[in-house]
Structures are given as C-alpha cells and as structure tokens.
Amino acid sequence: MASRQQRLAGLLNAAPIRPWLRAFPTWKGVLVLNYHRIGDSEHQPWDRTLWSVTEQQFDDQLSVLAREADVIGPGDLASVLAAGKGRHVMLTFDDGYRDNYELALPLLRSHGLTATFFLATGFIDDPRVAWWDEIAWIVRRASAEEIPAGNWLASAVSLGDDPDAAIAELVQIYKRIPDAERPAYLGFLAAATGSGPCAPAEAAGMWMTWDMARELRDAGMSIGGHTVTHPLLGQISPERQRAEIDECARRLREELSDPMRWFAYPVGSRDAFGATTKEILRSHDVEYAFSFYGGYLSGAARDRYDIPRVHVGPMMDIPRLRATLRMPQLFARSD
C-alpha cells in the first residue's frame, strides 16, 4: 500500500502540476541517498528488502540525478555546505555486496556520476552470510509452518503465508535482543524452522573482493568504513566497538593505501551508535559519519558524526525521487 508521501509525490508529478514542481526553489544542504543492493531479488533466498532497485530502475534514477541535481562525493561536503543553495546529492552504498561493483559501477560510469561505498571489511576478508541474510535463508527453507512462542518470541511467528513479513519480524527481534544472545537466537531459528544453519559456502560470490574495491577507487568512487562484522555498535562494549573500528580502518589502509576518512554506522538507527562510537571515530580523524534514519543535511553540519541518509527502496520511484529532490524537508523523512 502506498504511503501518504508516495501518493503526494504522484500527485505532484501529475502533468498539470509538474511544471510547478520543476520550478520549486532550491535549498541549502545535502541530500544523501542510501542503497544496499542492485538487481532482481525475486528468486533470491536472501533478505529481499536489501535490494534497493533493479538495474533499470537505478539507470532511470541516475538519469534524473544527472539532469536535475549536482551529485557530489564526501570530499565535497565541506565546500558544498559553505556554498549557497542548490540540489546537492550524495549516493551511498552499504555493506560491500558484489552487485555494487558488477551492476552499480558500470551505470555510475555511464552517467559520469560518483558514489561512496561503505565496506564491512570482514565480509571481504572472510566471506560469510550476514545475520540478516541468514535469517532470510532460514525462513525461506523452513519445513515448519511456524516458529513457536518462547525464548525470544512473545508469540508464534507464521512462516507459510508471508515469508517476507516473517523475515522482517525476526530481523527486528534480532536488533532488540542483547548482543551476547544473538548467536543463540540464530541457532534457535535454524532448529525451530527445520532449516538448519546456513553454511559459510552459501556466501560464495556475495561480496566484493579487494581488487574490486580498488577498481571502484580508481574509477573515482569513494570508499568508507562500515566495521568488520556489522554489529550494532551502540549495543556492544566500548572495547569491542574500538576493535571493530580499528580493524576496519587498518584493513582499508592496508588494501587501499588510504586512511578511513568516512564511516557509516551499521543499521544506522539512533541506538546503533553513541558518544563512545563518535569518540573512537575522532581518534581515527574520520571526517564524516553517516546514520540511517531519514532526513537530510540542511545547512551546516551540526554534528559531522551524524549525517542523515534517506533509504532508497522500491517505493523510491521516479515521481518520489523528483519530489524528494525538490522538497527534501518533506520527502526525505521516514514514512
């Protein structure tokens, strides 16, 4: 079902109103769009909400952005924020999925646009299935019709009618439970569904290699950090936060010969980072860190370690994109 923002975007892009929308005043600041995966998710066993757009949809979005916005990189943020009004947009990708290299990079090159890729270095060094994808894999292979209440579930979770809804519910539970209990939770799901655990070999071809990351860099793209194993940093100890950030920075420096100047918080919700996280990033001279709970950067960066980003998903069709470019103060908010 379309959200109110989606319906409003469609109305604003109707033929009689579209000229008024094109003439809408520019604004001061930067709109940061966040993608995860590019391609067709229909037959994938993984978390399909991570597929932001198909190749064709991404191509169409880039065509609009090339004509109607100024696409910048993170190194341009300071000068853009000091400048006047415009329609300045950053494109970002999280995690380091291989389709970012195979599908997104050629399209970015063809449109002459740049993007920033935030890499979880552990997925490159030691490919494994990420926890959100493991939950999806478990649900899609379930032999049981439901997961019974108990342990971490207040009520039974039905698996048969709408597996995507079950995956979304189980992912949210994972985010809420204590970090120390999360491995046991995944084991419980594997047993309760009858699927068994997801083998590391399932991750073959899922993630970029370091050679691919270097090609992104050499093509004019920006590379940032996203931890090693993608934990919710605000929910783990200061010592483990530092280990995740230190090791991520070390591997980026070793493989790309550059310091970690930019960082995106895994999950990116308001509870996914905190003052301790920011202090560790300062110790690495990180210039900007990016959250992920909606909004846009209006004017000067009030907190350079909390740059807001907008989720790009199936609801971000061309009318919605155009409306967001014209009125980010309204359309960059989370639905």
Explain what this protein looks like in three dimensions.
Helix content is 41%, strand content 13%. With 335 residues, it is of the alpha/beta class. Strands 1, 4, 5, 6, 9, 12 and 13 form a seven-stranded mixed sheet that branches. A two-stranded parallel ribbon has the order 2-3. It has a two-stranded antiparallel sheet with strand order 7-8. Strand 4 (70-72), helix 4 and strand 5 form a beta-alpha-beta unit. Helix 3 runs parallel beside helix 5, helix 7 packs antiparallel against helix 8 and helix 7 packs parallel to helix 9. It is globular, with a radius of gyration of 20 Å.
Specify the number of helices: 14
- β-strand percent reads 5-15%
The class by helix and strand makeup works out as alpha/beta
Task: List the helices and strands in order.
Answer: HHEEEHEHEHEHHEEHHHEHEHEEEHH
What gross morphology would you assign?
A: globular
Number of strands: 13
Helix content: 40-55%
* N→C terminal distance: 12 Å
Our Rg estimate from Cα atoms comes to 20 Å
Q: What is the mean predicted local confidence, pLDDT?
A: 92
* Sheet having the most strands: 7 strands, mixed
Question: Which segments are poorly predicted (pLDDT under 50) over 5 or more consecutive residues?
Answer: none
